[in-house]
Amino acid sequence: MSIVTIVGAGMMGSAMSFPLADNGHEIRLVGTPYDRKVIDRLRQDHFHPALKVTLPEAVKPCQIEELGTALQGTELLISGVPSFGIDWFAGQVLSQTPDSVPVLSLTKGLEDEPDGTLLPISKAYFKRPALASRHLSISSIGGPCISYELCARRHTTVALCGDDLGQLEQLRTILQTPYYHIRTTTDSMGIECAVAMKNAYAVGVSLAIGISEAHKNEDDTHWYNPQAALFGQAMSEMMRLIKLLGGQPQSVIYAASDLYVTIIGGRNRQLGLLLGEGLSFAEAQQRLAGVTLESISIITRAARALRLRRDASINDFPLLRHLDEIINRQAKLNIPWTEF
Amino acid sequence: MSIVTIVGAGMMGSAMSFPLADNGHEIRLVGTPYDRKVIDRLRQDHFHPALKVTLPEAVKPCQIEELGTALQGTELLISGVPSFGIDWFAGQVLSQTPDSVPVLSLTKGLEDEPDGTLLPISKAYFKRPALASRHLSISSIGGPCISYELCARRHTTVALCGDDLGQLEQLRTILQTPYYHIRTTTDSMGIECAVAMKNAYAVGVSLAIGISEAHKNEDDTHWYNPQAALFGQAMSEMMRLIKLLGGQPQSVIYAASDLYVTIIGGRNRQLGLLLGEGLSFAEAQQRLAGVTLESISIITRAARALRLRRDASINDFPLLRHLDEIINRQAKLNIPWTEF
Questions:
Q1: Is B254 an interface residue toward A (CB < 8 Å)?
Q2: Which of A148, A223, A257 is closest, CB to CB, to B229?
Q3: 3-state secondary structure (DSSP) of residue A251
Q4: What residues in B contact A258, CB-CB < 8 Å?
Q5: Who contacts A208 (Cβ-Cβ below 8 Å, separation ≥6)?
Q6: Which residues in chain A have Cβ-Cβ distances shorter than 8 Å to B252?
Q7: Where are the extended beta strands (E) located within B94-137?
Q8: β-sheet bridge partners, residue B141
Q9: Complex prediction ipTM
Q10: pTM to 2 decimals?
Q11: Is A177 on the interface with B (CB under 8 A)?
Q12: Distance (Å, whole) CA A168 – CA B118
């Protein structure tokens, strides 16, 4: 039994309390300043308003002001902040976490630097001046996992990645349950790239679902072939990017299963659908107001980096390039099929 | 303009007439003995009863007795027979085809030999004594392509594979259209393994869809996580098998897109669904009577080969092994999650 502190009471951070509680751990769930109302409600009756489930009794909900207490004696710190929250997490949380406490990041994303370098979140933390000389051990987790299904204790298989296999095995012992299956790998670059990019490419594949919706009146059959062709192109570009960044090609397996689940059940699919139906990005954004879409940031960052790099061309990633043109350059939908 | 002879008037063989007709070729569509009624109907009004579309005017439907005439002057022979028809195709068709006529096989499958060797169909032909000393050029085509969507001229991207890149480029010129996108590769082993195995693994992933259907009354949410975990395991096992057989790992891209389209829109999904709902294989087979399922044969053959091989263990392919146990050993559904 360990004491585990989760910072970020969003859907995935909070859902992690299920395998942890099932393994008998004490869980301190600390909300960010954005989670104030969620924590208020959890304190009342343990009901999570976004997940729409009652969290396990072992969860102790804490407001951000209680962070200091919540970190006391903790044996594992889990970050459930979204990618735009990592500066806050570095400054407010990691700054007061001793190097001896292992950190597990659930954040999906890649950070781009002025020279086109793309860094996984677990490495990007060390670019913050305050953390550069620290010896924190930051692992991360990726692979297909829809949060409310984790709460329902449905089987899933995820990848736990970091530099130290021994440390990863310890984390696996803390987290693994009969339904939450964990594989370990030292390929942080490959896994973090895969799980970040799948949000971008889920938009790409969903374009075909949107196109088919738009043609529903004249033709009520599905557009499976174009979806599959886009899925193949997405896989091809993700494999190319993983290799370019020095990751292992077999990590594309997680990109595949994570892309699959995001298309059939994730949030980023909605953006692709609307764009496929012919809406401009501005119109689609208006329609999705209030939904956090990691896809927009990852498309922008990856495309920006690929336009800068000398060892690659954005034209080797025509689907990503087109998504970037739609989102950041007001382009109309015009899938570059002949470049695939 | 070329003369192209297609043998096999099933759905995929017949659908190939669309890109060929759009490119201005003369098409002779020869039915196998099973296709007699289809050819009769096509002769009447060009309507294909299984595809439910009218084939292009450039198609000349021929009964099998007219094969000799249909092969006269042909510049490309396409085989649209299913995997159990390749002996027939070798004996009745290839025996009277000159080596100078390129052959394109649409057949999906792997053939297993007594020592556990698994051969792609394009190579298995040369194991027939009558063809062993011939110099036929047999290429094949794989990748996601649902036949009726090809007739609707929807975009798709497929892989054309064979030994001679120059020959493949010629075939591409004959077949490629603004909607039928073709990539060429010499990795026949990888592509043919991928497109054969995806039929097996589509059954595997669909098990989770069936399980979710069976639980619909007590829980109306989808089981996306288990589907995705099975998708990842399928990818992992397909990549392992491709490598084992000497194919190129990047051909797993086609396995991914082809698996995706087969799960969302193919026939083999039905078997997985019924097994996932708890039916025995015998019951599921009865329910699906009349539907040709390549999956049953490929699961049986691949598992049989892997049990025989010395350079691999069937336990490295736990999902495939379990599918084989259900189909050939009366096992009950019990997904081996902890072995993934």
A1: yes
A2: A257
A3: helix
A4: 228
A5: A223, A226, A227, A229, A230, A276
A6: 252
A7: 103-105, 110-112, 118-120
A8: B160
A9: 0.94
A10: 0.95
A11: no
A12: 37
